[in-house]
Amino acid sequence: QVQLVESGGGLVQAGGSLRLSCAASKNTFSTYNMGWFRQAPGKEREFVASISWGVGFTRYEDSVKGRFTISRDNAKNMVFLQMNSLKREDTAVYYCNADRSGYQPYWGQGTQVTVSS
């Protein structure tokens, strides 16, 4: 089982930056694809960004391209989401996800990001 703990959320003004972190318990972290999802009030959880195991191929949801950057540190079992030029519509609970083919996905408890105008 993989335990994921997010941190780094908070309140920020529009145009500001935040860096989310996700610490994973599993020492096979490097074999998992890692991702960030978010869920705004009254909306479904949506994909934000992902980074593959191995070569670290990244993908982004269109609205965050050029503003958010996902990265990982396999030596520390951590994944990060650098969020710049934040907008009010980025307000949501952000969840870390670990996914590996043939295994169940794992989720963190979420961290709140609130962007004020």
Structure notes:
- The chain has strands spanning 4-7, 10-13, 18-24, 33-39, 46-51, 58-60, 68-73, 78-83, 92-99, 106-107, 111-116.
- The chain has 117 residues and is mainly β.
- 0% of the residues lie in helices and 50% in strands.
- The strands form two sheets. Strands 2, 4, 5, 6, 9, 10 and 11 form a seven-stranded mixed β-sheet that branches. Strands 1-3-8-7 form a four-stranded antiparallel β-sheet, with no helix packed on it.
- The radius of gyration is 13 Å and the shape is globular.
- The mean pLDDT is 96.
- It has no helices and eleven strands.
Q: Could you spell the SSE succession in H and E letters?
A: EEEEEEEEEEE
Helix residue percentage: under 10%
End-to-end span in angstroms? Answer: 40 Å
Number of helices: 0
Would you spell out the secondary-structure blueprint of this structure?
Layout: E1 4-7, E2 10-13, E3 18-24, E4 33-39, E5 46-51, E6 58-60, E7 68-73, E8 78-83, E9 92-99, E10 106-107, E11 111-116
Parallel strand pairs: 2-11
Antiparallel strand pairs: 1-3, 3-8, 4-5, 4-9, 5-6, 7-8, 9-10, 9-11
List keywords for this structure.
four-stranded antiparallel β-sheet; globular; 117 residues; mainly beta; single chain
